[in-house]
Amino acid sequence: MAKKNIEWDKLGFGYMKTDKRFVSNFKDGKWDDGVMTGEDMITMSECAGVLQYSQSVFEGMKAYETVDGRTVIFRPDLNADRMYDSALRLEMPPFPKDKFVEAVCSVVKENIDWVPPYGSGATLYIRPYMFGSNPVIGVKPADEYQFRIFATPVGPYFKGGAKPIVIKVSDFDRAAPNGTGHIKAGLNYAMSLHAIVKAHEEGFSENMYLDAATRTKVEETGGANFIFITKDNKLVTPKSKSILPSITRRSIMTVAKDYLGMEVEEREVYFDEVKDFAECGLCGTAAVISPVGKINDHGKEIAFPSGMDEMGPTTKKLYDTLTGIQMGRIEAPEGWLKVIE
Ligand code: PLP
Ligand code: COI
To answer: What domains are there in the chain, each with its CATH number?
Structure first.
């Protein structure tokens, strides 16, 4: 085993082709056993369901090298559960959950030299995904599907790593009240591309989406959930049926309660109350915990007391504890780390 010769600490959040990926096909009503392959290219019908009607769902999780040299994956069972739910919502045959976790572990094992070393600041991002692969021309679900998992080493999602970012309140909506915001479907991201390109052009790192029905409540960003810290040190995080149930956010809620003894509120968060919070952060697999320094609301700025230089003190404690658990420095709750044997 020899780690790849990569400048790990210089990596951004990008794709790099690694050695092996897992591929399984669904045909005649069942999933095959799947294979590990070096082939990264996909050939399919010009009329494949995914190309015509965007029938695709995906997941994202990370593998870490721990302080004591183990390789672990953070809570892949929850990604298996969520991908199952995503598939059902898009009328796709769910991939069996136990096989999902097994295949994720195999992909990490087969690409072990690509797992960034402990302390490098990089991690191995794992991307399972599934799409309709046979020709579909009338609007209906495909009959055949492909499930794949690749892995790629990544650095921080936002440039500058843990430096506070500035985001804007978006005039676009991400998800309808009874739509697909709660699942990880590619279509949710396609429709956010125009909004993120515009936000970047205006100098903002991300969009804060509000609820589409009333535009009074905080939903999430294009790729992460929100956490807020009140002035009396409570963790508040938005509850909504149209946001992605972030595994990082659910883990942070446990960390806040059980490790830091904080009070935690998962509830509707009105945009009007955001100005009263002491700290704000984005959380997700890619974002980890990224502090938000300012939110621009149509030219009016909300500047959090934690400022633009570094993370607020409570966000930092949450960050240190969560990443400490992920990297084996702090004891993890039962079942959170899947060790690659
Ligand atoms: N919200 C959106 C829209 C996302 O794309 C992600 C990323 O997966 C998250 C939230 C965070 O979810 P998780 O913590 O499970 O990665
Ligand atoms: C993840 O955090 O895994 C995501 O899918 C978010 C995406 C914006 C990269």
So the answer is: 8-154 (3.30.470.10), 165-326 (3.20.10.10)
> Is the Cβ–Cβ distance between 126 and 258 less than 8 Å?
no
pTM of the model: 0.98
Atom of ligand 1 nearest to the CA of 59: 8
d(C-alpha 29, C-alpha 50), whole Å: 18
For the Cβ of 284 lying below 6 angstroms from any atom of ligand 2, the answer is yes
pLDDT digits (tens, 9 = 90+) for 93-115: 999 999 999 999 999 999 999 99
Question: Catalytic residue among 184, 217, 317, 338, which?
Answer: 184
Select from 20, 116, 5 the least CA-distant residue to 63: 116
Pocket of ligand 1 (CB under 6 A): 60, 220, 223-225, 244, 246-249, 284-285
Q: Is residue 184 annotated as a catalytic residue, yes or no? A: yes
* Overall residue count recorded for the chain in this entry: 341
Distance set, CA 316 to CA 30, 322, 324, 339 (Å): 46, 10, 12, 26
